[in-house]
Amino acid sequence: MRKPEDKSITITMRVRPSLKARAEAAAKADRRSLTGYIESLIAKDVEGRASTAFWKSRAGKELTRKRTNRASALEAKGHTVKEAVVQAWTEFRPPDFAA
Q: What is the pLDDT at residue 1?
């Protein structure tokens, strides 16, 4: 089991009173302190971004493989290399990811 990391860093931020009140209410609903609630939000966001980067990378590799295979098949049918590559890129567009 992994040993919990010491919390030795302090982050100070300014927010509107209304935002703080809503965050405190959300933290209470989650049975957390305000600090714990904000820390969990940051952790979820950071982990989500790392996961999205992984899937974007994987999707890019898969698209490259599909495009290469399709271009090779088109070349075998008599298309020029340029025609084959343009056609393969047209057929296999990258998926849309939220930024």
A: 66
